[in-house]
Specification:
Elements lengths: L4 E6 L2 E6 L10 H16 L5 E6 L26 E2 L2 E2 L2 H10 L5 E5 L3 E2 L1 H4 L6 E5 L3 E3 L13 H9 L1 H10 L2 E3 H6 L5 E3 L4 H13 L4 H13 L6 H15 L3 H12 L30
Parallel strand pairs: 2-3, 3-6, 6-8, 7-9, 8-11
Antiparallel strand pairs: 1-2, 4-5, 9-10
Helix pairs in contact: 1-2, 4-5
Length: 288
């Protein structure tokens, strides 16, 4: 890992810091590649239970590095893949990676987050911001459209009308507006941001099974596009039937009856349930 991404693991929580402070952490393709690799490494590491993403210096991320002019958006130079003949959006590739993630992802937005700086946070579970944070979906002001799968994520987070207003105007807004629209869940003083992010991470992981978190996170995101609740019913029924036979359920039940904290023995990677993710094995039929 080079200096573009700093990684620090403390008490099962990994903090990934975007580390181009002199450029306001604008994302180059090299930085995106390292960020994706850091996320992949963390997902495979059972010692990591949650991931926090933040920025070095006074910005979270001021978007894509445009120093290359028109070539700044030539995703084929980095990704080397196409979708139906069109070079893939590198930010979208990372959003899909986060969509299929096994662990909680928390954005600690310490300053300006515009363009890709804000869209990169949308697949994350929780976003908190400092009072100095600013947000902007500025793509129409550059003659472009939103990227990183944000046209799928943002309306589901803030609603269609607010998403369209932000997308169409491209205006920059403050942390209070982001909080009122539920784009972020908390606004705190800059000096408290990382401590608060770590506290939130521990509320998620300290008394929860890593296997259950993995399944619940991915099932919930998968069901965002379900056409009928029967799809969720089938998936949940299958998950419950399998998980209740595993050691973590037995420990969870025993700790409840014993009135003590649970010590879950299973690891999300080492002890991944057979056949998970279950929805890839079959198509759901709500009329079946």
């Amino acid at each position: 890992m080079s200096a573009l991404i700093r990684a620090e693991l403390v008490d099962r929580v990994l903090t990934l810091t975007l580390n181009r402070p002199n450029e306001l952490n604008r994302c180059s393709f090299a930085m995106l590649d390292e960020f994706g690799q850091a996320l992949a490494d963390a997902n495979r590491d059972d010692e990591v239970r949650a991931v926090i993403v933040t920025g070095a210096g006074r910005a979270f991320c001021a978007g894509t590095d445009l120093s290359g002019g028109e070539g700044s958006y030539d995703g084929s130079a980095s990704v080397g893949e196409v979708v139906k003949g069109v070079p893939r959006d590198a930010g979208g590739r990372l959003s899909l990676q986060m969509f299929d993630y096994d662990k909680p992802l928390i954005a600690a937005i310490n300053g300006p987050a515009v363009g890709y700086g804000v869209t990169m946070t949308l697949p994350m579970d929780i976003r908190i911001a400092s009072t100095t944070a600013r947000f902007g979906f500025v793509f129409t002001r550059r003659g472009l459209v939103p990227e990183a799968c944000s046209t799928w994520f943002l309306p589901r987070i803030v609603g269609i009308s607010r998403a369209l207003e932000w997308f169409e105007s491209g205006r920059v807004f403050n942390a209070d507006e982001a909080l009122a629209a539920n784009l972020v869940s908390e606004v705190v003083e800059p000096s408290d941001l990382l401590a608060r992010a770590h506290a939130i991470a521990h509320t998620l992981i300290d008394q929860s099974s890593s296997v259950s978190i993995m399944a619940a996170r991915r099932m919930t995101l998968q069901m965002l596009g379900a056409a009928h609740p029967m799809r969720a019913h089938e998936l949940e029924s299958r998950a419950i039937a399998q998980l209740r036979e595993l050691p973590d359920f037995k420990e969870g039940l025993a700790s409840f009856l014993d009135k003590r904290n649970a010590v879950f023995p299973m690891k999300a990677n080492a002890d991944r349930p057979a056949g998970f993710p279950w929805w890839r094995e079959q198509e759901f039929d709500p009329d079946a």
